[in-house]
Amino acid sequence: MNVQQEMRAAHAHHAGCAPDHVASAPATVVVAGDGVDNYGGASIIGLGPQRVCAAVSRRSDDVISLQFTRADGQILAATSTLAALNAPTAGTEEAQLAHRITGLIHTLIHRQVLSRETTGMDISVVSHVPHGVGLGEIAAAEAAITLACAGAHDDIDAPPLRTKLAEVCAQSATAYATSSPLKARYTAALRGHGTTLNLVEQADGSVTQITHPERLGLRMFVVAKEQAPQPDAFAESMRRRQEFIETAAANFGVTSLRQLPDATARVVQWVEARHTVGDSSAPDPRRARAVLQRCEDETARALGAAQALRSQQIDALVNALHPHAGDAADEALATPALLSQLACECGASVARPAAPGVSQSVLALVPTSKAENSASRMKENLLVIPITTGEVGRIEV
Questions:
Q1: Where is the signal peptide (predicted)?
Q2: Which of the 8 DSSP states describes residue 383?
């Protein structure tokens, strides 16, 4: 059964009608540059072979009806309305997901991708991306839904529209998601290339192809203790970091802190000044410095890794991707730090957190000659997912 047939069957079961459009989008893996979007940094993103498929059709009433089938067969079903977006959201996973997807539909209408006459929709999603392991399952779903909603546009594959759709996904997730989104995932899923890695520069919105690790004799694996997202408290911590970065940029009148000379020193001085005048909402200056330094370091790592991949220098790549020294002391990164150590003991050249604040998984790069044995050793106690190459999001016909 192909994607079109699978989604027609799923949508008929859910909505009782044929879909208007069907689309799919890939899993995304963050090789370097996590958490630097709002800082204006750079990220390296790869597309995985796993995909999320979405089918959509208009409704005559105001209901947004969502059915989301996960890779393990779990079905999340919920309804919402555009009018309910400002109401408090129930704490269930289904309610939060429906709120997030309803927010996406609202943003698509506001950005004129969907007609302003749109009131309700049936949305069926079938995911083949494992949940909770840092492969961007929900981001892929949002990209697929967005493509399906834009399916009537003749220029669906044109770069300007693809850029707009990625911006819509990021804007919506920032407003309606409970966790802080990585905008570069949407950029790569909708504008990237599958046979190479993608260097996404937030400073200018560019996407550049760089050599895939497979060309250097390295296999990529995502390794996790279990399919479980990071606890909400950690996700909230990451969101507070992003909000602090945005607030600091606004204070200095720049789009991103990467545009600000001596950003770390100047922002820390600003934080200290807030404490001096009794601003209780100001973060701890040492914590502020650590957050900004990590953004600087992670962007430098992404650019260094990109250069190493271009020049096919494995040692330089491993050095660039080595985890931060302070990760083990960060509660949100403690489990990934231990997994990284275990992966390296099993033969990985380097391993690092795959999605800090979102998942407790790690991305491991293993020499091809050791890959089979290394994966077998890790599979004894861990979930191991091979990441090869994928394809950009597309309309399914």
A1: none
A2: E
Instruction: Label the pairing between strands 197-201 and 206-210.
Output: antiparallel
Q: Using CA atoms, how far apart are residues 35 and 23, in angstroms rounded to an integer? A: 28
- Nearest 5 degrees, angle CA 9-CA 190-CA 62? 50
The three-class DSSP label of residue 75 is strand
Assess contact for 330 and 340: CB atoms under 8 A: no
∠ CA 235-240-241, rounded to 5°: 95
Structure confidence at residue 333 (pLDDT): 60
Retrieve residue 230's tokens: 């990071």
Residues 6 or more apart from 354 whose CB is under 8 A from it? 29, 30, 133, 134, 135, 222, 336, 361, 362, 363
pLDDT given at position 230: 58
CA geometry: angle at 84 spanning 79 and 87, to 5°?
A: 120
pLDDT (0 to 100) of residue 338: 85
Dump pLDDT digits (tens) for 334-385: 667 789 999 999 999 999 989 887 888 999 999 999 999 999 999 998 999 9
Q: What is the pTM of this model?
A: 0.94
Q: What letter would DSSP give residue 19?
A: -
**Beta-carbon count within 10 A of 336 CB:** 30
pLDDT-based confidence at residue 328 (cuts at 50, 70, 90): low
**Confidence at 2, pLDDT banded by 50, 70, 90:** confident
Question: Structure tokens of 140?
Answer: 């892929």
